[in-house]
Write the structure tokens for this entry.
Amino acid sequence: MIQVGIVGATGYTGLELLRLLSNHPEVEVVYATSRTEAGRKVADFFPGLRGICHLTYSEPKAAEVAKCESVFYATPHAVAMHSMKELLDHGAKVIDLSADFRLKDVPLWEKWYGCEHVFPEGVEQSVYGLPEVNRKKIQTAQLVAAPGCYPTSIQLGFLPLLESGLIEPSDLIANSASGVSGAGRKGDVSLSFAECNENFKAYGVSGHRHLPETEQGLQAIASGESEEINLTFVPHLLPATRGIVSTLYATLKGNQTLDELVNLYDERFSNEPFVDVLSKGQLPSLQNVRGSNFCRIGIEKPLDRNKVVVVSAIDNLVKGASGQAIQIMNIMCGFNESKGLHLPSVAP
Amino acid sequence: MIQVGIVGATGYTGLELLRLLSNHPEVEVVYATSRTEAGRKVADFFPGLRGICHLTYSEPKAAEVAKCESVFYATPHAVAMHSMKELLDHGAKVIDLSADFRLKDVPLWEKWYGCEHVFPEGVEQSVYGLPEVNRKKIQTAQLVAAPGCYPTSIQLGFLPLLESGLIEPSDLIANSASGVSGAGRKGDVSLSFAECNENFKAYGVSGHRHLPETEQGLQAIASGESEEINLTFVPHLLPATRGIVSTLYATLKGNQTLDELVNLYDERFSNEPFVDVLSKGQLPSLQNVRGSNFCRIGIEKPLDRNKVVVVSAIDNLVKGASGQAIQIMNIMCGFNESKGLHLPSVAP
Amino acid sequence: MIQVGIVGATGYTGLELLRLLSNHPEVEVVYATSRTEAGRKVADFFPGLRGICHLTYSEPKAAEVAKCESVFYATPHAVAMHSMKELLDHGAKVIDLSADFRLKDVPLWEKWYGCEHVFPEGVEQSVYGLPEVNRKKIQTAQLVAAPGCYPTSIQLGFLPLLESGLIEPSDLIANSASGVSGAGRKGDVSLSFAECNENFKAYGVSGHRHLPETEQGLQAIASGESEEINLTFVPHLLPATRGIVSTLYATLKGNQTLDELVNLYDERFSNEPFVDVLSKGQLPSLQNVRGSNFCRIGIEKPLDRNKVVVVSAIDNLVKGASGQAIQIMNIMCGFNESKGLHLPSVAP
Amino acid sequence: MIQVGIVGATGYTGLELLRLLSNHPEVEVVYATSRTEAGRKVADFFPGLRGICHLTYSEPKAAEVAKCESVFYATPHAVAMHSMKELLDHGAKVIDLSADFRLKDVPLWEKWYGCEHVFPEGVEQSVYGLPEVNRKKIQTAQLVAAPGCYPTSIQLGFLPLLESGLIEPSDLIANSASGVSGAGRKGDVSLSFAECNENFKAYGVSGHRHLPETEQGLQAIASGESEEINLTFVPHLLPATRGIVSTLYATLKGNQTLDELVNLYDERFSNEPFVDVLSKGQLPSLQNVRGSNFCRIGIEKPLDRNKVVVVSAIDNLVKGASGQAIQIMNIMCGFNESKGLHLPSVAP
């Protein structure tokens, strides 16, 4: 049993950490911080945790938080980097759910996030926490940057094809759709029910912060390729609360059959506890990942032409954020990687 | 063809006025005011009006606005009362969609709305604009207070029973449910998609501003009764954008059959263009009023006991606000009452 | 560790039993029956269970099923009664989620369900499984009828007031709203997305099968009252998948304050693991019970008049069906009553 | 004023024809046929038409129907072809909303629709009814095949780029998402609320009937190209009732700027009454086309790379079906093309 802390526990990823960790047999959450709600009971703020969570919000104090063996940062971007050095110096193992340590190219980060990075040493030291790619590095890391939600679904979807060199890396398309919870717990007209319900739209087409993260990850996966990764990424806002479906398009270099492609995925992910490759002819849906840590993937080759279509579905708050963060913690702390996460989806 | 103005045209009732009036053959909207959006094209703010509305938002100036023959106030509460005197002095016919002139009891208004009423003379002069009750007074009024959304659905639902003295006036229950658009166009966490979707809850049970308005209206309808009106009103927030269903409960004094009750409603509303009494055994639904100005009503007498149940459905933005306001304008201006409003519901 | 079987495991309550029992440490599900899907993998039918449930559907054979220590019937009404005798003779402990054994008055059952009851001895022997009322009887029962979803929410909501004799039993109103999953997993135009989305309506007002069940339960609770229970019950269909909110209205005989009423509820339910009485001023919502076994209850006394309003929220598939069935099983089998059910709600 | 008939008026496109035509000043609907509902009032079947539509369903008899000047077929596929010859012989102008006359290649039609085409002469004679491409031919046609919903959104989206030869025709991608009403008014588990709500999934990836129709249309548009059209089309099912968004991807041959691309669209569609090209930086949404006949289009060129992204939004029941059919009728009958269709979207 280890003691863990959650910094910034009033957003949806914080709430989801509390929900999931409430059934983790090796973990006790002892700190949940919030500047605005300090002193208030967590279960007053999130009444769905009444009878489950008995914590009270604390002010975030690095020295206190650092007493935890493991710490989750569920803060907005450009917050974690400010207290990270102190926390690491105290020896805590940290999983940052924000974007602060995801991009290895600091100037690129500064361009997309519009501010100076105050802890570039942390960027260097940190590990990008996609377990299916970096499991070994995560085992010994002290600071792990949990991947973004869109990037998780896209990287897992392209992984076997890129690793095996079967597709053109310079002509990748990711058409993604996310539930509204991906934008966080916010009062914003554009996120209001009346504006999102019975609506659907593309956004951020001219440039979305998850693009450089995803391209960095795909480039790492495609390390044997001479050509550079070139991804066209179009996110859309779904009239749903949870979940991401990424529909991926790539051009095959050769002439693999659909059976061969499905086999490739089956083999690559056969030992992965949370990547589920569907049978030929099946495609995933949000309903079948909601509330669970699974990424489910289906593969098609329409009319046997030269395009491969991969559909990858996750719950943005679980495998796309808090579930994956717990998976990372399990790896860092030497627990069984599925501990506390072996949950069926909540359907219907 | 008359010229009309809309004061406060950036909210949902303003938008709905623009939508509905775009097909009104006797009306040209010449002013749409907004303090925050003055100078911006209306169709840039509401892209659904591209190709339909060519207006630009103006600053609200009473002298300018008053050049219109008819003016709609679609502002938040406690705004219209400030410029109403000037507007009326200019001779404009005004329909106020806010609550400023709904309650005849000024101290009661001040208690529920938490501020001083600056134009009590206007309250005295104004007519409460429920056409099914006050049609004659509306014809000659200069200032009409358009009823609230919940009060419209509840008053129309109880009307025949109260008028005819068949039910106990002191034991009325209105269980209402409204779509989220009823709360207006707002950035507020509690109105966000992630909080409202797959959710449902009662609110304002200890006291809602529409209660005194409704009780005032029911009291007027039940003018022959010696006992006072006593309404228990519980509003709920639906995971839907548009529409109100009010499920009304009353105790019958006598022993009328369901057939007799349905007949009573049929007769009372037979000449009403926008009240539709369903056949015995039928109940209304939101889908069948969405986008239209109809109030549809179904009546039941469960197990032939002593309770009558009336279900009343409207689109909160149409018969509950902007459609009813146009119906009022039609009456005030001597147009056919249905002009521009004879629209089917948008289903599915 | 006991072995359990689920008869009729292709509907939503069967799926929910599989979801919840997958994390129950004392239970192994060894049978899941379906006439139509026998031979098919459960996880092929419900892909959300891939990686979680490794069962294959079997033909329902009482002799086989009866080898289980505990058996859940998740079949439509009028199915369980046909094989119940054989099952009980084999000694299995049975929880029936259908209506077959809920009504003690067999002719009344036959009237509402439109067919002959083939096992009236089972009705006599069975216990009505509302733990908060019948816990002791459940402990020693062999056959328990799990309460319906609406009846659970209504009985728990009225319980303290009726038990204490504070309200008029002959003037009770239950205005309930349920998510569409309450109608089961069905292909039916009236349950289709296009018909239910952005829609809301009352149904079954002239008479709903849950009315006699609820009145029977309320009568038992109000055993000290001389007057008979008289409940007006109006169910509504919500544009949501899961959850029931029942808004209950009653007339107070005396003059209790809201504080006294909240205290009454607090005390009555203080030892109940799954009834959560909210603080004064708080009301429950679907979001805060979704996926969990809690019934959350809020109490109001509008404008301090003589009506009390109780709002009771449950997840219809959990506390309203499969979760409560597992709670019953825990009691019957001597497990901790919360075993496998101490789950936070899934929000947002 | 002409008399029109609707064959198969119990589905959503039939309902939408009735809704839209109720406000068309030149049209009186005199027939609405249904085999199953003959003799029943239309407004009993669709209560949202109470007070609006006073028709009774008739049996479909070609001789009777043919008395109408214009006839809409809103039947399932493979129905219209059976009575079309007789109808045309009577001289009626026919708009078929089904797929029977969309594909010019009869064997291809037979392959995708799985049955023999009984009226290939009709295919030859018919005009494909996309007004933005075939306006002149529609003017003199007797039989027009109204385009499918997805094909409308995709063809309009690619049109200026293909016509001008700026993109590679052999590498087109259409990622489309449709509301559930696109599947028709059906009782089908997969279309039920509980299965579609909070869900999202790709379907028909291995091959969808709208693919050959779309490729045929794109080929005609790209008539100057030597290379063949090759479209990868992936439809998705949205948790929304109405609307289609198609996100289109193509590779630019040259180096046009985004300004040049937006200008190209502006110019091509400047005289089109129902195609609305948004300003640079704007993207369309379902909300802004719901209930209206507009196709709204936004163009992007992400990071100024070689891919162009076009987002095209329509209401599948209006511009994607019944609205477009009325637009076609207006052209065929010599009315102003916008007559009865100049409607704002219904938002929110």
Q: What stands out?
A: The first strand of chain C starts at residue 2 and ends at 7. Chain C has two domains: 2-125, 150-316. Chain C touches chain A at residues 12, 15, 18-19, 22-23, 46-53, 181, 185, 197-198, 241-242, 276, 278, 282, 284-285, 287-292, 294, 296, 342-348 (CB under 8 Å).
